Amino acid sequence: MNLGFYSYAGAAVAYAFFAVLLLFSWRESLQGKLLFISAAVSACWAVFAIQVSLHNESALLPYQSLEIIRYIAWYIFLFKLFDVSLPGSEAGVASGTGGNGKAGGLSGDLTDGQLDRRVDTTRRVNNSYRRFVRKALPVTVGLAVLFLVNELLAQIWALPGQFVLGITGNVLLALAGLALIEQLYRNTSPRFRWATKYLFLGAGGIFIYDFYLYSDALLFRNIDQSLWDARGIVHLVAVPLIAISSARNKNWSLNVFVSRDIVLNTTAIFVGGFYLLAMAGAGYYIREFGGSWGKFGQVMFITLAVVFLFVLASSSRLRAQIKVFLGKHFYKNKYDYRLEWLRLTEDLSEKENHKDHCRNAIEAMSHIVEARSGLIWLREENSAFYNVGEWQHKKFDAVLAKEDPLIKFLSATGFVINLRELETHADEYQDLILPGCIREVEQGWLIVPLHGPTELLGFVVLANPLMVRSINWEDRDLLKTAAKQVASYLMVLMTSAQLAESKQFEMFSRLSAYMVHDLKNIAAELNLVAINAEKHAANPAFVSDAFETVENAAGDINRLLEQLRNKRVHGEKKALVDLDEIIQDVVELKQQKSPSPEYINRKDGCMVSLEKNRLSNVLAHLIDNAQQASEQDGSVRLSLLMTEDVYAIEIKDEGHGMDEDFIRDRLFKAFDTTKGNAGMGIGMHESREFIRQVGGDIIVQSKPEKGSIITLCIPAASSDSKPDSASESIAEA
User: Fold this and answer.
1) Contact status, residue 595 vs residue 629, Cβ threshold 8 Å
2) pLDDT at residue 725 greater than cutoff 70
3) Residue 376, SS3?
4) How far is it, in rounded angstroms, from Cα 220 to Cα 230?
5) Which residues lie across from 418 on neighbouring strands?
6) Which of 60-74, 127-141, 591-605, 700-714 has the highest mean pLDDT?
7) Statement: residue 458 has pLDDT above 50
């Protein structure tokens, strides 16, 4: 029984019937015409295969020629699925559809603007595939033509090695078809695979069987008759599968999108195929010339070769290195930068307050690498860096001075620090030692610097994503580019806040002018009393009214002075003063109000260089706040601490206390007061500004209902330490 005859006869009938259906159904579709040509050529090939199965030697040359022409026809059809059927092709764009009645092959309603953006993006994306098709199609078809010429020459000149060359050509052609099928499947949108999977199964099955048939023939220098006979059955099964896909795809629009792994995966397939061919040839050589151990050696050699291939294929490091190499030298982009930019802009959209802006900055950086939490440190007026915002993470109170190794490293290099690599590749980070607060970040992963035009503005610390991922050179470049945008965004907000604050101070100055006018009115009333006193001094009613006028004037003056005392012009120059004497004088001045302050820890000879009256006003203001926050029977205690270069004035009360949010967001904010009309909200702001001007800082420790400790850190007059080191030194003490 001639099995080859029946199998190829079935394949010929199936291909012919399929070609007739296509001829009447796909007149206006280029893909349909190409598929018709492929089916017609395959039908002719199957007819001559029938003749070969009947041992008709005259049919051998047409059969072998049609074998290669069949490959060429299928190549062109499959390549055109990349090119002509791409969403966003000229035909698709002109009609506003990607061949399936919806924009670009995508479901859902789109506005005109969204459609224009989608079409524009698709045009740019598909240019990569068109370049791929323009280069790969001529190369593949040219290779097939060379093997076709070899088959024709073999009938004229019988040269040694032509059989091996012809079989090798068929192996390579089958391998190329497999690579093409693999790329089409990988890069077809998942929602369209239901319509194309049968094409991939059918055509892929044909190429797989051809690869197996000719690899076996190449190995044993002979085509296995049983395998060749069964080949027609494979085609008979494949035709209905291809027909199902053609029925589901009237326009063959596969909605192909660009995959960054196209070269990597194709390279892996071809390299693997060439490797197996080489190993099979070596195995055949061992079998032929290995004597009694030949067959055993062949089996062992091929087994070890396959194992070694799988070891290489499973090497993540090798794949990563190849992927980075290909990405650097063959691709422009890893990300869709347009979408990344739009998302970054959306994340940085304006919110209600500064805290929201900082959180937005963290989220914007986190979304790029899918980090699940983060924190941000920004530089303040004293050049120290404070943790001013967090996203899905606890806050840290640690302050980093500008001399901190981390700050110096980020300022000098601008590197994105990968905390996973820091211990294993310390030399790449100049043996950087991280501060304790950074090491305590939960699942810390990346430190991204935020650089302004001239200096470091701050940095963002990102935590690990839910799925651990590695970052490469392009991730770092994108993070640094986004960080520059975030830094510019924060600088604009900070400048706007400073401008708004200046406007408020300007308004305050105008208000002062009105207050001066009121003082003049009060002075006029008092002058009037003084003038009338000579005439009516003996009149009890006049005396009573005069005292009432004086009392009201005193109240008005005290109110105005309370509002203006922190804004009067300071013309005093810096001088060496003794902190102990200043504290003692202010404490004595504040004894008339309860609870009376106590100076419990005195230190002699604590000399500093500053304006004495301004420091006295700051201390008086802080003691007054402590008295107002405490009960009548409470306590307000002052103490003076010292290190070798920093003095600390500690003011401790047992009052109502403050929470962390209030301390961070409101305590030092100008014109923000909890005293209603009795306060202007500039006392704490002015106090901190003065202390920072002399190189110090104010540290606040407080808990609700637990009282507060306000510490003024002031550098000693003879200290060589820099201004921003004061708070850090006393904190360590």
Assistant:
1) no
2) no
3) strand
4) 18
5) 446
6) 700-714
7) yes
pLDDT band at 727 (very low <50, low <70, confident <90, very high): very low
How many residues does the structure list for the chain? 733
Q: DSSP 3-state assignment of 234? A: helix
Decide: helix, strand or coil at residue 459. strand
Amino acid at 731: A
DSSP alpha helix (H) spans, 221-256: 225-248
Question: What is the overall mean pLDDT for the chain?
Answer: 75
Partners of 448 in beta bridges: 460
Return the SS3 of 637.
strand
**pLDDT tens for residues 334-347?**
666 777 888 888 88
Three-state SS at 239: helix
Which residues in 358-378 are b (16+ Cβ under 10 Å) and which e?
bbbbbbbbbebbebbbbbbbb
How much of the chain, in percent, has pLDDT values that exceed 70? 66
DSSP conformational letter for 714 = E
pLDDT at 470 over 90: no
Per-residue pLDDT at 462: 92
For the chain, the maximum distance between any two Cα atoms, rounded to a whole number of angstroms, is 151
Q: Residue 645: what are its φ and ψ, rounded to 5°? A: -135, 5
Q: Which amino acid does the sequence have at 668?
A: F
Q: Is the separation of the CB atoms in 79 and 116 below 8 Å?
A: no
What is the C-alpha to C-alpha distance for residues 12 and 236, in angstroms, rounded to an integer? 8
d(CA 86, CA 246): 16
Closest among 422, 384, 493 to 731, alpha carbons compared: 384
Which tokens sit at 644? 């070798």
